[in-house]
Protein backbone atom coordinates (compact mmCIF):
# COMPACT_ATOMS: atom_id res chain seq x y z
CA UNK A 1 0.00 0.00 0.00
CA UNK A 2 0.91 3.69 -0.10
CA UNK A 3 2.19 3.60 3.48
CA UNK A 4 4.82 1.01 2.58
CA UNK A 5 5.81 2.99 -0.52
CA UNK A 6 6.30 6.07 1.65
CA UNK A 7 8.46 4.17 4.11
CA UNK A 8 10.65 2.75 1.33
CA UNK A 9 11.13 6.26 -0.04
CA UNK A 10 12.30 7.50 3.36
CA UNK A 11 15.27 5.26 2.90
CA UNK A 12 14.69 2.25 5.10
CA UNK A 13 16.07 1.73 8.56
CA UNK A 14 14.08 2.41 11.69
CA UNK A 15 12.50 5.64 10.44
CA UNK A 16 8.76 5.22 9.91
CA UNK A 17 6.66 7.64 7.95
CA UNK A 18 3.19 8.90 8.76
CA UNK A 19 0.85 9.21 5.80
CA UNK A 20 -0.30 12.83 5.80
CA UNK A 21 -3.55 14.02 4.25
CA UNK A 22 -3.81 16.04 1.05
CA UNK A 23 -6.72 18.34 0.26
CA UNK A 24 -7.02 20.00 -3.13
CA UNK A 25 -8.87 23.31 -3.47
CA UNK A 26 -10.25 24.27 -6.88
CA UNK A 27 -12.28 27.32 -7.94
CA UNK A 28 -13.65 26.59 -11.44
CA UNK A 29 -14.17 30.32 -12.11
CA UNK A 30 -11.36 32.82 -11.59
CA UNK A 31 -12.22 35.48 -9.02
CA UNK A 32 -14.33 33.16 -6.85
CA UNK A 33 -11.84 33.26 -3.98
CA UNK A 34 -9.93 30.02 -4.52
CA UNK A 35 -6.58 31.46 -3.42
CA UNK A 36 -8.08 32.99 -0.29
CA UNK A 37 -9.89 29.78 0.70
CA UNK A 38 -6.97 27.44 0.00
CA UNK A 39 -4.37 29.51 1.88
CA UNK A 40 -6.59 30.24 4.86
CA UNK A 41 -7.85 26.65 5.01
CA UNK A 42 -4.22 25.52 5.07
CA UNK A 43 -3.64 27.88 7.98
CA UNK A 44 -6.58 26.46 9.92
CA UNK A 45 -5.45 22.88 9.26
CA UNK A 46 -1.92 23.83 10.33
CA UNK A 47 -3.27 24.88 13.73
CA UNK A 48 -5.32 21.69 14.11
CA UNK A 49 -2.39 19.35 13.34
CA UNK A 50 -0.08 20.93 15.91
CA UNK A 51 1.85 23.12 13.49
CA UNK A 52 2.58 20.42 10.91
CA UNK A 53 0.62 21.77 7.96
CA UNK A 54 1.66 22.93 4.50
CA UNK A 55 0.36 24.85 1.49
CA UNK A 56 1.55 24.13 -2.07
CA UNK A 57 0.38 26.17 -5.06
CA UNK A 58 0.27 23.86 -8.09
CA UNK A 59 -2.07 26.02 -10.15
CA UNK A 60 -1.33 26.16 -13.86
CA UNK A 61 -1.04 29.94 -14.03
CA UNK A 62 0.88 32.57 -12.10
CA UNK A 63 1.04 32.10 -8.33
CA UNK A 64 -0.80 34.93 -6.56
CA UNK A 65 -0.28 34.03 -2.93
CA UNK A 66 3.23 35.48 -2.66
CA UNK A 67 1.99 38.94 -3.63
CA UNK A 68 -1.02 38.53 -1.33
CA UNK A 69 1.22 37.81 1.67
CA UNK A 70 3.91 40.31 0.59
CA UNK A 71 6.43 37.46 0.74
CA UNK A 72 9.78 36.98 -0.99
CA UNK A 73 10.77 33.35 -0.35
CA UNK A 74 14.25 32.01 -0.91
CA UNK A 75 12.94 29.10 -3.00
CA UNK A 76 10.14 28.92 -5.54
CA UNK A 77 8.18 25.97 -6.89
CA UNK A 78 10.18 25.90 -10.14
CA UNK A 79 13.40 25.14 -8.24
CA UNK A 80 11.79 22.26 -6.36
CA UNK A 81 10.32 20.80 -9.55
CA UNK A 82 13.73 20.88 -11.19
CA UNK A 83 15.19 18.86 -8.32
CA UNK A 84 12.16 16.73 -7.49
CA UNK A 85 13.77 13.38 -8.36
CA UNK A 86 16.72 14.17 -6.07
CA UNK A 87 14.52 15.40 -3.23
CA UNK A 88 13.44 13.55 -0.10
CA UNK A 89 10.99 14.72 2.55
CA UNK A 90 13.70 16.42 4.60
CA UNK A 91 15.07 18.45 1.70
CA UNK A 92 11.51 19.28 0.61
CA UNK A 93 10.92 20.84 4.03
CA UNK A 94 13.97 23.07 3.53
CA UNK A 95 12.40 24.55 0.38
CA UNK A 96 9.28 25.79 2.17
CA UNK A 97 8.82 29.39 3.20
CA UNK A 98 7.09 30.02 6.54
CA UNK A 99 4.54 32.79 6.84
CA UNK A 100 4.14 34.76 10.07
CA UNK A 101 1.83 32.09 11.52
CA UNK A 102 4.37 29.31 10.92
CA UNK A 103 2.54 27.70 8.00
CA UNK A 104 4.94 26.11 5.51
CA UNK A 105 4.27 27.46 2.01
CA UNK A 106 5.60 26.65 -1.45
CA UNK A 107 4.50 28.50 -4.57
CA UNK A 108 5.72 29.74 -7.90
CA UNK A 109 7.49 32.93 -8.87
CA UNK A 110 4.63 35.37 -9.63
CA UNK A 111 6.47 36.42 -12.79
CA UNK A 112 6.47 32.88 -14.21
CA UNK A 113 3.79 30.48 -15.40
CA UNK A 114 3.65 27.30 -13.29
CA UNK A 115 2.48 25.18 -16.23
CA UNK A 116 5.92 25.48 -17.83
CA UNK A 117 7.50 23.16 -15.26
CA UNK A 118 4.59 21.15 -13.81
CA UNK A 119 3.77 17.76 -15.28
CA UNK A 120 2.06 14.57 -14.12
CA UNK A 121 5.31 12.88 -13.07
CA UNK A 122 6.34 15.83 -10.92
CA UNK A 123 2.86 16.03 -9.39
CA UNK A 124 2.98 12.35 -8.38
CA UNK A 125 6.37 12.77 -6.74
CA UNK A 126 5.27 15.99 -5.04
CA UNK A 127 2.20 14.21 -3.66
CA UNK A 128 4.22 11.39 -2.11
CA UNK A 129 6.77 13.77 -0.59
CA UNK A 130 4.05 16.06 0.75
CA UNK A 131 2.38 13.16 2.54
CA UNK A 132 5.71 12.34 4.18
CA UNK A 133 6.65 15.93 5.03
CA UNK A 134 3.44 17.21 6.64
CA UNK A 135 0.43 15.87 8.45
CA UNK A 136 -1.85 18.05 6.32
CA UNK A 137 -1.14 19.65 2.92
CA UNK A 138 -3.42 21.87 0.87
CA UNK A 139 -2.85 21.88 -2.89
CA UNK A 140 -4.07 25.09 -4.49
CA UNK A 141 -5.40 24.07 -7.92
CA UNK A 142 -6.83 27.37 -9.13
CA UNK A 143 -9.26 27.70 -12.04
CA UNK A 144 -7.15 26.54 -15.00
CA UNK A 145 -7.57 22.77 -14.73
CA UNK A 146 -5.11 20.78 -16.85
CA UNK A 147 -3.91 17.20 -16.74
CA UNK A 148 -1.39 17.86 -13.98
CA UNK A 149 -4.06 19.39 -11.76
CA UNK A 150 -6.45 16.50 -12.48
CA UNK A 151 -3.71 14.04 -11.51
CA UNK A 152 -3.21 15.90 -8.22
CA UNK A 153 -6.92 15.78 -7.43
CA UNK A 154 -7.12 12.10 -8.24
CA UNK A 155 -4.65 11.28 -5.47
CA UNK A 156 -6.02 13.81 -2.96
CA UNK A 157 -8.08 12.71 0.00
CA UNK A 158 -10.74 15.35 -0.60
CA UNK A 159 -11.41 18.02 -3.25
CA UNK A 160 -12.86 21.33 -2.08
CA UNK A 161 -14.78 23.17 -4.82
CA UNK A 162 -15.09 26.92 -4.22
CA UNK A 163 -17.85 28.84 -5.98
CA UNK A 164 -19.31 32.34 -5.80
CA UNK A 165 -23.10 32.01 -6.00
CA UNK A 166 -23.68 33.97 -9.19
CA UNK A 167 -25.34 32.14 -12.09
CA UNK A 168 -22.31 31.89 -14.46
CA UNK A 169 -20.03 30.64 -11.67
CA UNK A 170 -22.59 28.09 -10.48
CA UNK A 171 -23.05 26.80 -14.03
CA UNK A 172 -19.29 26.53 -14.50
CA UNK A 173 -18.91 24.70 -11.17
CA UNK A 174 -21.66 22.25 -12.16
CA UNK A 175 -19.91 21.50 -15.45
CA UNK A 176 -16.59 21.04 -13.66
CA UNK A 177 -18.10 18.63 -11.14
CA UNK A 178 -19.54 16.59 -14.01
CA UNK A 179 -16.09 16.52 -15.62
CA UNK A 180 -14.57 15.32 -12.36
CA UNK A 181 -16.93 12.35 -12.40
CA UNK A 182 -15.76 11.50 -15.92
CA UNK A 183 -12.11 11.33 -14.78
CA UNK A 184 -12.78 9.16 -11.74
CA UNK A 185 -13.22 11.76 -8.99
CA UNK A 186 -16.36 10.61 -7.21
CA UNK A 187 -18.85 12.93 -5.44
CA UNK A 188 -17.98 11.26 -2.14
CA UNK A 189 -14.55 12.90 -2.32
CA UNK A 190 -15.89 16.36 -3.19
CA UNK A 191 -16.99 19.12 -0.83
CA UNK A 192 -18.66 22.31 -2.06
CA UNK A 193 -17.87 25.68 -0.46
CA UNK A 194 -20.04 28.68 -1.34
CA UNK A 195 -17.92 31.80 -0.97
CA UNK A 196 -19.09 35.44 -0.68
CA UNK A 197 -22.28 34.28 1.06
CA UNK A 198 -24.41 37.27 2.01
CA UNK A 199 -23.27 39.52 -0.83
CA UNK A 200 -26.33 41.18 -2.32
CA UNK A 201 -27.82 40.11 -5.65
CA UNK A 202 -26.58 36.53 -5.67
CA UNK A 203 -28.45 33.22 -5.91
CA UNK A 204 -30.41 31.79 -2.98
CA UNK A 205 -29.74 28.43 -1.34
CA UNK A 206 -32.39 26.59 -3.33
CA UNK A 207 -30.96 27.78 -6.65
CA UNK A 208 -27.42 26.87 -5.52
CA UNK A 209 -28.36 23.35 -4.46
CA UNK A 210 -30.45 22.71 -7.59
CA UNK A 211 -27.76 23.98 -9.99
CA UNK A 212 -24.98 22.00 -8.33
CA UNK A 213 -27.15 18.97 -7.46
CA UNK A 214 -25.58 19.27 -4.02
CA UNK A 215 -27.23 19.35 -0.63
CA UNK A 216 -25.88 21.35 2.32
CA UNK A 217 -22.72 23.00 0.97
CA UNK A 218 -20.54 24.96 3.36
CA UNK A 219 -21.13 28.72 3.32
CA UNK A 220 -18.40 31.31 3.91
CA UNK A 221 -19.72 34.73 4.89
CA UNK A 222 -19.10 37.84 2.83
CA UNK A 223 -16.68 40.02 4.84
CA UNK A 224 -14.80 42.29 2.41
CA UNK A 225 -13.57 44.72 5.07
CA UNK A 226 -11.59 42.20 7.11
CA UNK A 227 -10.43 40.24 4.06
CA UNK A 228 -9.20 43.37 2.28
CA UNK A 229 -7.34 44.52 5.40
CA UNK A 230 -5.63 41.13 5.65
CA UNK A 231 -4.63 41.35 1.99
CA UNK A 232 -3.29 44.87 2.41
CA UNK A 233 -1.30 43.85 5.48
CA UNK A 234 -0.12 40.49 4.10
CA UNK A 235 -1.70 38.25 6.76
CA UNK A 236 -3.81 35.14 6.73
CA UNK A 237 -7.26 35.77 8.17
CA UNK A 238 -6.84 33.69 11.34
CA UNK A 239 -3.65 35.60 12.18
CA UNK A 240 -5.36 39.01 12.05
CA UNK A 241 -8.98 38.13 12.91
CA UNK A 242 -9.03 34.66 14.51
CA UNK A 243 -12.51 35.13 16.02
CA UNK A 244 -14.32 36.57 13.02
CA UNK A 245 -17.15 34.58 11.43
CA UNK A 246 -15.26 33.61 8.27
CA UNK A 247 -12.25 32.37 10.26
CA UNK A 248 -14.56 30.25 12.40
CA UNK A 249 -16.31 28.88 9.32
CA UNK A 250 -12.94 27.96 7.78
CA UNK A 251 -11.99 26.32 11.06
CA UNK A 252 -15.14 24.19 10.94
CA UNK A 253 -14.32 23.24 7.35
CA UNK A 254 -10.82 22.18 8.43
CA UNK A 255 -12.22 20.06 11.27
CA UNK A 256 -14.67 18.41 8.89
CA UNK A 257 -11.93 17.51 6.43
CA UNK A 258 -9.79 15.96 9.15
CA UNK A 259 -12.68 14.05 10.69
CA UNK A 260 -13.80 12.73 7.29
CA UNK A 261 -10.30 11.45 6.68
Number of strands: 8
Q: pLDDT average, as an integer?
A: 91
Structural class: alpha/beta
> Low-confidence stretches at least 5 residues in length (pLDDT < 50)?
2-16
- C-alpha geometry: globular
Q: Give the H and E element order.
A: HEHEHHHEEHEHEHEHEHHH
Biggest sheet features: 8 strands, mixed
Walk me through this protein's architecture:
The chain is of the alpha/beta class and 261 residues long. The chain is built from 12 helices and 8 strands. The chain has an 8-stranded mixed beta sheet, sandwiched between helices. α9 links the parallel β7 (190-197) and β8 (218-221). α5 crosses α6 and α6 runs parallel beside α7 (147-154). The chain is globular. The two termini are 17 Å apart. The model is unreliable at 2-16 (pLDDT under 50).
Question: Would you summarize the structure shown here?
Answer:
By secondary structure, the protein is an alpha/beta fold.
